[in-house]
Prior knowledge:
Number of helices of chain A: 4
Largest sheet of chain A: 5 strands, mixed
CATH topology of chain B: Ribosomal Protein S5, domain 2
Helix content of chain B: 25-40%
CATH superfamily of chain A: GHMP Kinase, N-terminal domain
Number of strands of chain B: 12
Number of strands of chain A: 10
CATH class of chain B: Alpha Beta
CATH architecture of chain B: 2-Layer Sandwich
Helix content of chain A: 25-40%
Radius of gyration of chain A: 18 Å
Strand content of chain B: 25-35%
Number of domains of chain A: 1
Strand content of chain A: 25-35%
Shape of chain B: elongated
Oligomer: heterodimer
Number of domains of chain B: 1
Amino acid sequence: MGGYGDVKLLRDDGLRLDGRKLDEMRPVTIEAGILPAADGSAMVTHGLNVAVAAVYGPMEAHPRKIQRQDRAVIDVRYNMAPFSTSDRIRPGFNRRSREISKVTAEALESVVLVERYPRSKIRVEIEILAAEAGTRCAGITAASVALADAGIPMRDLLVGVASGKVEDIVVLDLDKAEDNYGQADLPVGILPNTGEIAFLQMDGDLSPDEYNLAMEYNFKAAAEIHEIMVDALKRRYEGGEN
Amino acid sequence: MVELVPTLLRQELARLAEDDLRLDGRGRWDGREVDLEIDCLYNAEGSAKVVMGKTIVYAGVKFEIRTPWPDRPSQGSLMCGAELRPVAHRKYEPGPPSPQSIELGRVVDRGIRESGCIDMESLCIVPGEKVWGVMIDIHVLSDGGNVFDACGLAAIAALRTAVVPAERFDVGEDYTLKVNGTPIMASFTRVGGRYVFDPSEEEELGGDERIHITLGDEGHLHSLQKGLRGVFTPAEFAEIFEVAHQRCSELRKLVATQEGN
């Protein structure tokens, strides 16, 4: 959190700079099955974010030391394209992308029925083509649609969504300015059908009440995104094989 | 992933070649349909997406201010890199750039650089102090064969849409990058003993060596590359060179159409 208190993020009419209400999400579109080479894939646009996910597998897990006798491991790579941000990112992993990859993998392992595939590996590749705050959430949503598109059984879809705080007020789905100058960010991965949480991070400053409200916003948004995910998968399979 | 020797595929491709046929029904010199989208990425100063059959490629242009090389104080720089990331195919492993990605990036880079379409002097801000570094990054999202042509097309199309972000760097007003020309690559692979244009994934798997030709607006050669194991004759080159001419001008027209010309 940048914490520059003097940047104005709410308008006098109580709306946000881009005209959204406090609990209003940026527009989300989802398309499943967009990458012909992958076993499953999806593209998610969330505001100006563009996240693409590809799934390969289940396949033999190697190197062997990553193998688990009782379940599959999920190998996630979250990567930002060099041109996805205002300043070019040098290609290759950094500490941020490694951490996001790790916790995303663990979240997906909590949702996928990994015990169905002992000793195997499921590769999930998340590529961010354009970034405008909230890429990890868009990536989680894309990954879960791609897993479903690959026909991999899951307990539920996993929805990535975030709320935060700007000018001491809790808002849903931070955009770039709100992320840069806001006071808190609470990205989560929600299982909308079971009401569970598989991904959780937070930074900034939230009171317990603010946390509860932010989480309430997140669940509301997750239900909305879930519908769009289901719709994307239906469109994919109603159209038949392509 | 270890690729199994595709003996059966090779046999089938050889059998088809006897009747001058291809696996997907195309003629020997036919390319797949090309879908080009320009200026399609937020945050990139120039961008393009190319879809050719099962191949999907994005290219994005970014600028940075750097100090010029001491021997060329008034020249900016251009760099083009490609990544065959694991997202693109199950055969690609994570890790540092593979020799294939490096070859791919460098062949595209040479075609654009050597065509002279970017005047390096025009990238100078303050001689000896500040120049623009232009970076084209190519992201292969799906490898369905012939990523070279897809990358070459995406790179030049993205470059041609680029806007120099001078305001953001506090060195004047934004302006459209001047690009003089549209160098285009055409690639051929030996399949069943003879060359075909725009190889598919199966043709690359069951084929032999490949040749990449980049031609400028005037039909001049700007970059050549032979890859993989195999040899060819001058007569074979003459034949594919003719085809390259035609296909490159068609693709150049496609770029112009997308640009609204």
